[in-house]
Amino acid sequence: MFKRLRADIEAAKRNDPAARNKFEIWLTYSGVHALSWHRFANRLYKMHLKLLARMVSQFAKFLTGIEIHPAAKIEGGVFIDHGMGVVIGETAEVKSGVVIYQGVTLGGTGKDKGKRHPTIEKDVVISSGAKVLGGFTVGEGAKIGAGAVVLKEVPPHATVVGVPGRVVRIRGEKPDLLQEKVDPNAEEIKYLKCRISKLEAALEKLTGEKFECTKGEIFPVAPDEQADDTASEKEERAAADNGQKEQGGQD
Prior knowledge:
The chain is of the alpha/beta class. The chain folds into 3 domains: 2-175, UDP N-Acetylglucosamine Acyltransferase, domain 1; 182-207; 213-251. The protein contains 8 helices and 15 strands. The termini are far apart. 27% of the residues are buried.
């Protein structure tokens, strides 16, 4: 337990440029405190004192703002920076060298039994607000972007961003992957356009009328703007009429 505590403090010193010394880290870093409480709760859980283990984990959550299930497997040398809002699920596994920022969730996607939380391999960085959901593996050295929602396995040394998460780099190079060539939103729009065109063709065949959208229907104008446009049109017509009258009088 003390060996892992030393590894956690070393990880904080290595990854946080604001860290001044190990004593300050031990006293003030909530991520280090949360991991220490988790190791105690995990030992109680393995001794089948599950209720007491859950009580310890909830007490640690109250103190640190970090919720870790007592059954989660976390190696020494993990750094949780700031940590408020971090949630780590029951079957999650976190290897050494991992850096987790605030608001991260290592969770599941449903009520399935068994392995339903992710395995985070060594030296992974999970940025603020990222959600890693499911019983898959995030490969060694991968980087998860802030706010990303990761729902499938991540290759080693990959960079994942977006919702849903997509691989945009592997070892600093853009991969030639099918996911990069397919935009799910564009595919959905194409599908809807196809359906609409077929429905229009069927309606034209039944009614004999051709359906076309006017500019006003595509770009509806607010009532106030419409009133302003009408007033301006009247002024333009009045000015044009006056100009014609003046020209007629001169003639």
